[in-house]
Amino acid sequence: MALPIEKQVPGWLTGEGEHPDVVLSSRVRLARNIKGFRYGSRSVRDEELQVRDEVLGALEHEKLLDTMTRINIEGLLAYECNYMIEEHLISKDLLINKPAACVVVGSGSRVSMMINEEDHLRIQSIASGFDLRRCWSEAEKLESLIGGNLEYDFHPKFGFLSSCPTNTGTGLRASVLIHLPGLVLTKEIQKVLRGITKIGLTFRGLYGEGSEVLGNFFQISNQITIGKSEKELIDHLSRITSQIIQHEQNARSVLFKDAGHYIQDKVWRAYGILERARTISGDEVMNLLSAVRLGVSMKLIKGLSVSTINRILIYSQDAHLDVAAGKQLKPMERDINRATVIRSCFEDNNQLL
């Protein structure tokens, strides 16, 4: 089947917002459960189906389905599911409850909602660049509209209840996807990562929990959702992210001053391979793209936009290549197609100059 959202560039890849050369995207996710229904490991299929219908009914009542796309997980092929994981629309946990699971996606994928994941609802807003407060505003607006039609499971002492204790309270997870090659190359990254873990934050790879750190991309988020207000959690992550951005910019300045020739060589070698390669692996793309993104930020490469780099990042992912081909490709086919897609993105960028 054809995904109704395929071939659209996600809104969080536009290269807009504050510090888009350092912060790829900001995201706020709210976990909610509907009162009167079991959830987590205690949930049963009949109730999950009822939860799905209740939530969709609430969206219909608010006329939100007129502007959003509903996608049922059941019936999707494996690579179509992986496509939505790569777009940051769903998690692997959503795939466990296929018959009752679905995702509802807004225009440009800025706002979306998983139904029957680990909790009944995972409401998400994701934006390009450093813009956590806007994400919170959009996620909270959708949460309030649904809450006006359905009663959330809420405890006066503990807050919103969830299947995992770490999500109880506000149910809020805020995160930034941040590119830190300067701190990696200056060997300051471990000091920064150790520091954020001491103040209630955590880091993961490009696709969150369980994913590997590739291309110097780190997803930084809050660990605890109870005991603080949503504003406090957002302000805390915003403040620390601003400090990390400053450290990264300082590290880039040091690199340019003390190792300029080395950096230029690294950047232009990466650019040349990406622009000319006829076969290339996904991991190699991530590492080369990191160097090119650094080169654009340091103004070593002119005429290449952050938006084009972001397009390459998403279009060169395995499942995106499979969806574009309409089938699950073999590894060699995928590496050939990946190189073709990347060259096409460079050609499109040059035509716009």
Structure description:
The protein is of the alpha+beta class and 353 residues long. Helix content is 45%, strand content 16%. It is built from eleven helices and ten strands. It has helices at 45-61, 78-86, 132-147, 181-185, 189-197, 230-258, 260-276, 282-297, 306-315, 318-325, 331-352, and strands spanning 23-32, 68-72, 102-106, 111-115, 121-128, 154-155, 159-160, 172-179, 201-204, 217-222. The strands form two sheets. It has an eight-stranded antiparallel sheet with strand order 2-3-4-5-1-8-10-9, with helices on one face. Strands 6-7 form a two-stranded antiparallel ribbon. A hairpin with a 5-residue loop joins β4 (111-115) and β5 (121-128). α7 (260-276) crosses α8 and α8 runs antiparallel to α9 (306-315). The longest helix has 29 residues, at 230-258. It is globular. The two termini are 37 Å apart. The model has no long low-confidence stretch (mean pLDDT 91).
